[in-house]
Amino acid sequence: MNKSTVAKRQPCALAWLARYRPQDFGLARWVAVRPFVVVCAEELGLDGGAAALRAVRVLARLAAWAVGQGLPLDVEVVLDPDTVERFIGSGVGHDRSRATYRAELRRLGPLLTRRAPWEARPLAVSRRQVAAPYTPREVSQLRAFAAAQPTVQRVRAARALLALGAGAGLDGRWVARVSAQDVFAAQMAVLVRVTEPGTRAVPVLASWEDEVLDLKATAGDQYLVGGYSTARNRAGALAASLVVPNGCPRFSASRLRSTWLVAHLVSGTRLPELARAAGLQGLTVLSDLLPFVAALDQDEAAALLRGGR
Fold first, then answer.
1. Which end of the chain has less Cβ packing within 10 Å, N or C?
2. Cα dist. 276→7, 199, 244, 264, 273 in Å?
3. Which of 1-5, 27-31, 188-192 comes out lowest in average pLDDT?
């Protein structure tokens, strides 16, 4: 940023800055740095809100310090990462202020400079979208489709995907690796033992217990889905091989898992127990499924919120 650039852009100063002067800033000090701050504000398109005021205040303090160090008010110099760190170390008084100033200037630096060696910001990683659950009607359709598969092997695969997915919340990470010995009864529940990720024993929903027990009884030494394959994409390959009529929902292990999660949310299963049974590390997936849980009426909701059942 050179003097001619400042002089050229000064008439375009944002209107809200015309009356602004940072607190604890002498008039002469502000006059010296104001052109630099105004150009930065215009470049950023600051609108005068709280965030804009914070940015202007931080830039003014940095610019005033730079003048005192004999530095030119060139944005590539003043907002160079090394200059910013020197300012944080010697121009800011308190530890809390240092953290605030550092965070703000690290945000502003890459936006205002072209040559200063700021590290490129990493690309934002989009959060995985949770699979939509099946409706009760769709689950009934899938059960009918499972029984109508053209081969015995596909019938078994479809039944197991459904029972272990909608009944125990197992998706492609686990569903294809459950053997007969992984299914057992304990404390009036049918449990399915799964390994990494998240080794645990998952109680099967009561409505799916008989199906899981029948699959156990007829599995022999194969997995419940049939066969011996341990391929990583085994569940996806099985689901893709199943036959469904056009326009009807297809088999999806992830959607079946969401169906199981929603069934628990609807029935009021406590979140700590549900998260452990599902092998979840956090509650983001559950929060994403809340739109699929019908709201209680006002009286039922009030009873629960008072601590009732």
1. C
2. 64, 10, 33, 13, 5
3. 1-5
The domains of the chain, with CATH numbers, are 3-112 (no CATH), 136-305 (1.10.443.10)
Tokens 């929060």 -> residue: 287
Three-state DSSP string of the chain: CCHHHHHHHHHHCCHHHCCCCCCCCCHHHHHHHHHHHHHHHHHHCCCCCHHHHHHHHHHHHHHHHHHHCCCCCCHHHHCCHHHHHHHHHHCCCCHHHHHHHHHHHHHHHHHHCCCCCCCCCCCCCCCCCCCCCCCHHHHHHHHHHHHCCCCHHHHHHHHHHHHHHHHHCCCCCCHHHCEHHHEEEECCEEEEEECCCCCEEEECCHHHHHHHHHHHHHCCCCECCCCCCCCCCHHHHHHHHCCCCCCCCCCCHHHHHHHHHHHHHHHCCCHHHHHHHHCCCCCHHHHHHHHHCCCCCHHHHHHHHCCCC
- Flag the least confident range among 82-96, 160-174, 239-253: 82-96
- CB under 8 Å to 159, separation ≥6 — which residues? 146, 147, 211, 215
Better-scored residue on pLDDT, 14 or 233: 233
Q: Is the pLDDT of residue 176 over 80?
A: yes
Contact call for residues 73 and 1 (beta carbons, < 8 A): yes
User: Are residues 198 and 171 in contact, defined by beta-carbon separation less than 8 angstroms?
Assistant: no
Give CA–CA dist 139/252, Å, rounded: 11
| Nearest residue to 76 (alpha-carbon basis) of 116, 104, 109 | 116
Which pTM does this prediction carry? 0.61
Cβ pair 109, 88 in contact under 8 A: no
79 vs 89, residue with greater confidence: 79
